[in-house]
Amino acid sequence: MTKPQIIYQDDEPAFVVLPYAEWLATIDEDEADEIAAQQARDDDDGTRYPMEVITRLSDGESPIRVYRDFHELTQEQLAEKAGVTKVYIGQLERGERNMSSKLRAKIAVILDVDNDDLIPWAQE
Asked: Where are the alpha helices (DSSP H) in 47-100?
């Protein structure tokens, strides 16, 4: 356990600073759930995808292809925006080529997703 830091104001204790995990241990489960829910709401960017997108991703389909289709872009349009060839996009979608981190970042911006969203979902 870490020793809490006490912050004084006008020579009186006003605040206590302690590690987050220790503070969580002092509150009940309902309070912890509400804090987690509020944090999720604060972090929510409002992006929603139809079930078809989620199903295709969970079935192991290429995230590049799924998000490209969602944004109604052809391989040629995505390639032009990313500065690569249509053939290269096709190879990426089929898993025949690996993307550099720079290209992944560029395609993520074009498709309005996080870089990690372009990593195929693990299949069991």
From this structure: 51-58, 63-70, 75-82, 86-93
